[in-house]
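Lecture notes, continued. The same structure-token format from the folding unit now serves as the input rather than the output. Read the line below as a description of shape only.
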């Protein structure tokens, strides 16, 4: 905390990320209106500072008279949930395979790395679209799809770290004492690579949020009744010439959230990587 208070990048990242998390957690309290409440008489009302705007709808309304601010606040729930849970799933897969590949070596390493190479040869967008067509649309499906298609980075990073750590003297001493491999991996190797793993996971939350928003924008993400920033962008695209605020403010929400996570990830990387410490 002392370091982050001295880092402008870290402070901005922490503030923006915390703001997004607060909106997601306390959406029912912070939202001025029910997100699905329609009022045709109030459709396409501009933001409050516009001459035709009203303080009842600070960021205006959409084509069905729904409050844009309320929908952005509730949309943060979907984006943050998908981002965090998909990263947990991808991280778990990549961590397990990376630890196994780096520690065991030999045939295990060759098989896992060839599997990684084969996975990387497939364009991710095509793989995602294929899985979307196979699985039933929904938030859980998107989490699974983004999780099983984004584990490669974790596996490669963890493997590289394990290859270095396993050659250290303390690991060699523990092996010579007959410690079980799984205990060595969990108690002695993973704690020494957890910093790099955490940094990669933090930065990948931003990538997953962008991916989920992109899929929702294309109409192949979560169902239409689920509020997401990407689907709000897709709706606002059709009204951009007459109601710019419908697409602009969800885009700003995505940008600020992703920037906050990236800034926080950069701070963690600079803090935990000894090669970058000044």
């Amino acid at each position: 905390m002392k370091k982050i208070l001295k880092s402008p990048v870290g402070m901005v990242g922490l503030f923006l990320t915390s703001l997004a998390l607060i909106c997601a957690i306390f959406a029912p309290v912070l939202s001025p209106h029910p997100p699905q409440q329609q009022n045709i008489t109030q459709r396409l009302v501009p933001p409050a500072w516009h001459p035709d705007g009203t303080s009842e709808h600070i960021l205006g309304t959409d084509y069905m008279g729904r409050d844009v601010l309320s929908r952005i606040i509730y949309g943060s729930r979907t984006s943050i949930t998908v981002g965090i849970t998909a990263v947990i799933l991808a991280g778990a897969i990549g961590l397990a395979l990376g630890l196994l590949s780096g520690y065991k070596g030999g045939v295990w390493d060759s098989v896992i790395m060839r599997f990684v190479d084969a996975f990387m040869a497939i364009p991710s967008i095509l793989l995602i679209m294929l899985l979307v067509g196979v699985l039933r649309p929904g938030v859980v499906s998107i989490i699974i799809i983004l999780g099983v298609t984004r584990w490669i980075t974790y596996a490669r990073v963890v493997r590289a770290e394990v290859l270095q750590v396993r050659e250290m003297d303390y690991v060699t001493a523990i092996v010579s004492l007959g410690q079980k491999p799984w205990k060595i991996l969990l108690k002695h190797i993973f704690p020494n690579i957890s910093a790099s793993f955490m940094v990669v996971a933090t930065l990948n939350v931003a990538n997953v949020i962008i991916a989920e928003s992109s899929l929702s924008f294309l109409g192949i993400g979560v169902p239409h009744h689920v509020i997401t920033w990407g689907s709000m962008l897709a709706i606002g695209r059709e009204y951009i010439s007459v109601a710019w605020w419908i697409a602009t403010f969800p885009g700003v929400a995505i940008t600020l959230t992703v920037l906050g996570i990236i800034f926080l990830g950069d701070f963690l990387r600079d803090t935990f990587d000894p090669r970058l410490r000044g």
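Point for the exam: The radius of gyration is 22 Å.
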